[in-house]
Design goal:
The complex is a heterodimer.
Chain A lengths: L14 E4 L3 H12 L4 E4 L14 H6 L8 H4 L2 E3 L41 H5 L14 H16 L24 H13 L3 E3 L34 H4 L1 H6 L3 E4 L3 E7 L5 E7 L5 E5 L3 E3 L5 H8 L25 E7 L14 E3 L15 E6 L6 H7 L10 H10 L3 E8 L8 E9 L5 E6 L4 H21 L3 E4 L38 E3 L14 H20 L4
Parallel strand pairs in A: 1-2, 1-9, 2-5, 3-15, 9-17
Antiparallel strand pairs in A: 4-11, 6-7, 7-8, 10-13, 10-16, 11-12, 12-13, 14-15
Chain B lengths: L6 H12 L11 H10 L14 H14 L13 H9 L7 H13 L10 H11 L3 H15 L11 H6 L14 H13 L1
Classes of the chains: A alpha/beta, B mainly alpha.
Chain lengths: ~550, ~190
């Protein structure tokens, strides 16, 4: 819908929302349709469904949706604070810069967390050297919002045997099974495990005026040209704009939240599309920029009253970064799977979700069946070859030629433990394309996280064997070098000494500053956080609107 | 997706900043240029290069043709990968131009002839000696990209690479069954009814 809403910079708007992704897009829709004036700041451009392509070279190699890659972002990475962080060839912190944020380019695997995820610390006890904690909310409190996500953005699926309870069925059936899913079912049956339907934020049927998935096979890392992926771009932002109360201010990179003499947020400073400094007066600010960008912005907004960064009296801004650890076992089969068609995943195994203390370490995860590398040709040729094949020449060409349509992966997503040593800080040497200090990630997986990946890699190898793979090989388990899941860096909690926001996402330090995105998560789940981020956003918006109506902001 | 970065991709991108920028382009004699154009063109009309000189294009095309050789099926030559190189090395991957030029120069410095004039066996032997070189990695990656990227980027002429591996990226939509095993399951279900 065409939208001409433009708010004056000198008039304080009710809410400035920094970020248009999984959380920001939902909060924008909720607050604007509730009658509040909202500006959504998005540093990327306003691409529409018709702008998305299958151009693998531009999207994956040239990082089109990521804003252009490491040269533009200046991001740096190191494994511990004694190292000087360097700028690796692949951008370490990966998220989409486009209206709709990473909900545009994610794979749309869409699990709810379980009841246990919110109270694992109480169930299992402390883990030394970590900030392992219970959430301030329970599954019961978030469940209605999981249901809202499913019914308002559009989620396809069917319940699995280990899922926590749901108050309403899925609004539409699961997407069709793929060959990888059939092979996983066969293997799981042999091993006494359970291959369940993978829920997706992708429409299996027309829904709310949007069309169903056309199985084009370009979900992961691509935008959906059919509008069937339930990004906030497809599902929420059109409703926000239709309210007449919401301006999407794209290509606007916020670099500072200004506070007034009373310590309240009063102004948002940003670079416009031409790189010129601009400012917007605000009554309240909601930061939903993702776990890395949110941390950076709060740290950049330090002032005399907030010397360590805005909302950072606890020192917890940027800390407890959790990527979710990952593993993969690749296999080749006799017949063609054609995994390049349709969504990534159709079946997932959740038998190893819970921590089992007999394993000797904390953690759990899921194993799903998907093309992964065999999704697109360049990705497959670069990353998907067995270790024992030459890297060029006839033998290599023959392997690619045979395997592309016959290959699949059992992909592993696991827990990450929250620790002080894993964090987002401002890089002292590098800047991004706008001149802001670059995001510096410091990350060294907890031994338990790596043990979990190793454990699940062995299970995935057993599954691949049982599935009848002609040949299979595993990714070596090692330290993370970056991530897409940017969790925990402004965690929610009741104690202002050990958390950044309260249970309703209001910052403990600044009454008119709210933070809601992946940074709010207290624990990491098992590798699919977006559903929970979206549920938190619906919940946060409800409480923020209530407080605003009561004049309590 | 998996976060692990293999040497190949990291290496390629890492080199972006490390490119020397030293241009060692030879001034090719007209006859050599004509040979070079002929060598790397399956194109209907020999399109001119915009970034590369004809002689260096001939060598790079020969390198690409050993990385993805023509066998009983098409390789880098048939996909006209060299036009992808020419396109991106003058554009988004300009920073790599110096590195690939210095790579070529180093290779040719040790030869009596130029690389493109060697036998395929000698070309393979030469590249095997250089395959740990970061600049070989760049050549390998450019060849993969040029072979498989959409035709609009310069290579993958007529989608030869996609036809080769069975990818049908230019199709926009699919219906189930997608592959052998889900089709087989559907068939079993139907039989069982």
């Amino acid at each position: 819908m065409a939208n001409d809403v433009r708010f004056e910079q000198r008039d304080a708007v009710d809410f400035a929302i920094i970020g248009s992704g999984s959380a920001g897009g939902i909060i924008a829709k909720e607050l604007s349709t509730a009658g509040f004036n909202v500006i959504v700041f998005e540093q990327g451009p306003y691409r529409k469904a018709s702008d998305f392509t299958h151009d693998e070279y531009s999207v994956i190699i040239e990082s089109e949706l990521l804003g252009g890659g490491p040269q533009q972002s200046g991001q740096t990475f190191r494994h511990n604070e004694n190292e000087i962080a360097t700028s690796p060839g692949v951008q370490p912190i990966r998220y989409a810069q486009t209206v709709g944020g990473s909900s545009v380019h994610f794979s749309a695997n869409f699990w709810r967390f379980r009841e246990s995820d919110f109270k694992e610390r109480s169930m299992l006890g402390p883990i030394s050297g970590t900030n392992f904690s219970d959430w301030p909310i329970t599954y019961d409190e978030i469940e209605p919002y999981y249901t809202r996500v499913e019914w308002e953005i559009g989620v396809s699926g069917a319940p699995g045997p280990f899922d926590s309870y749901r108050s309403k069925p899925f609004p539409m059936p699961p997407l069709p099974v793929k060959s990888s899913g059939v092979l996983m079912e066969k293997a799981a049956k042999k091993l006494g495990l359970h291959a369940q339907n993978q829920p997706h934020a992708v429409l299996s049927q027309p829904f709310n005026g949007r069309s169903a998935c056309i199985h084009c096979g370009h979900c992961m890392m691509f935008g959906c040209e059919a509008g069937a992926k339930s990004s906030t771009l497809a599902a929420m932002i059109p409703l926000a704009e239709a309210s007449g109360n919401c301006e999407i201010r794209d290509r606007s990179a916020v670099f500072r939240i200004e506070t007034d003499g009373t310590g309240r947020a009063s102004e948002v400073l940003y670079y416009d599309k031409d790189g010129n400094e601009q400012s917007q007066k605000v009554k309240a600010v909601i930061v939903s920029a993702n776990g890395a960008e949110t941390s950076r912005l709060l740290l950049l907004s330090a002032s005399a009253q907030h010397p360590d960064g805005l909302a950072n009296s606890s020192g917890y801004v940027g800390r407890n970064l959790m990527f979710n650890a990952h593993g993969a076992v690749d296999g080749v089969f006799e017949e063609q799977l054609n995994e390049f068609k349709s969504v990534q995943v159709s079946r997932v195994i959740h038998d190893f979700y819970e921590t089992d203390e007999t394993r000797g370490f904390y953690g759990g995860g899921g194993i799903d069946a998907r093309p992964l590398w065999a999704m697109t040709p360049i990705f497959h040729a670069l990353e998907g070859m067995p270790h024992d094949v030459p890297r060029w020449g006839k033998a290599w060409k023959d392997e690619i030629t045979n395997n592309f349509t016959r290959q699949m992966t059992f992909a592993i997503g696991t827990t990450s433990l929250a620790m002080d040593r894993n964090n987002i800080t401002l890089d002292p040497n590098n800047t991004d394309q706008w001149g802001r200090p670059a995001i510096r990630a410091t990350y060294h997986d907890h031994d338990d996280d790596l043990s979990t990946v190793q454990f699940l890699t062995h299970r995935a190898e057993e599954l691949m064997d049982a599935a009848g793979a002609r040949k299979f090989w595993s990714r070596e388990v090692g330290l993370s070098n970056g991530g897409e899941h940017l969790l925990g860096t402004a965690r929610m909690g009741d104690d202002p000494a050990t958390s950044v926001v309260d249970r309703y996402h209001r910052s403990h330090d600044v009454p008119n500053l709210f933070i809601c995105d992946g940074s709010s998560l207290v624990t990491s789940g098992r590798g699919q956080p977006t559903m929970t981020i979206m549920a938190l956003a619906f919940r946060a918006a409800e409480h923020i609107a209530k407080a605003a109506h009561a004049n309590e902001i | 997706m998996n976060k692990k970065d293999t040497v190949s991709r990291r290496g390629f991108l890492k080199s972006t900043g490390a490119a020397t920028g030293a241009s060692l382009l030879r001034i090719g004699a007209p006859s050599l240029a004509a040979i070079a154009q002929a060598a790397c063109t399956a194109r209907d009309e020999a399109a001119p290069f915009t970034t590369l000189g004809a002689d260096e294009a001939a060598d790079f095309a020969a390198v690409a043709a050993r990385i993805i050789p023509t066998t009983d099926t098409p390789g880098a030559s048939e996909a006209q990968v060299i036009y992808f190189w020419d396109n991106v090395l003058g554009g988004t991957q300009k920073g790599l131009l110096g590195a690939v030029r210095s790579f070529r120069d180093d290779i040719n410095a040790g030869l009596d002839a130029v690389f493109s004039e060697l036998s395929e066996a000698d070309q393979d032997a030469t590249l095997r000696m250089m395959e740990q070189d970061m600049r070989f990695e760049i050549c390998r990656n450019l060849t993969i990209f040029g072979f498989f990227a959409m035709e609009k980027h310069g290579g993958n002429k007529g989608h030869v690479s996609w036809d080769l591996i069975g990818f049908k990226g230019h199709h926009g939509a699919w219906l189930p069954p997608f592959g052998y095993y889900d089709a087989q399951r559907d068939a079993e279900k139907t039989d069982g009814q």
